[in-house]
Amino acid sequence: MNPLQPGNTAPPFSLLNQDGETVNLSDFAGSKVLVYFYPKASTPGCTVQACSLTASRSEFDALGVHILGISPDPVKKLKNFEQKKELNIALLSDEDHAIAEQFGVWGEKKFMGRLFDGIHRISFLVNEQGEIEHVFNKFKTKDHHEVILAYLRG
User: Which of 46, 53, 92, 126 is catalytic?
Assistant: First the structure.
């Protein structure tokens, strides 16, 4: 696993959101975008992370930052997650993990002594020019939104 670093160009992507609509990274050109990767919808850590971002959405909006969550879940599962937890952020389906691989967040993981491939919980702030401005990879799921907001506020 080799995550993109600040200064790298964010890979362009087109993915379906929880409503089955195509979302392109280029749709947000000229704006900052938080692209956050999470392993699996409706799991405890991913739920805490998504709910915290939802609760902080107005602060991100005020700072001009769009939020895109990406996981390997199918669209239907993302829709269920959104509805069950009343989320107000875009959740994108990367079922073949091609985008996760391009961002360098797909790789070997260990859970309960078992090795497997999956998404590592890493977030990228993409600047107005489409470059990685900052990489967030050291946080607890419950503090994820606070770490990013602190960075954005300078």
Answer: 46
CA distance 3 to 107: 10
Q: How many percent of the chain have pLDDT more than 90?
A: 94
| CA distance linking residue 16 with residue 40, whole number of Å | 16
Catalytic site includes residue 51: no
Fold held by 14-153: Glutaredoxin (3.40.30)
The pTM for the full model equals 0.96
Which pLDDT score is estimated for 1? 79
In sequence order, the β-bridge partners of residue 133 are none
Domain boundaries, given as residue ranges, for the chain: 14-153
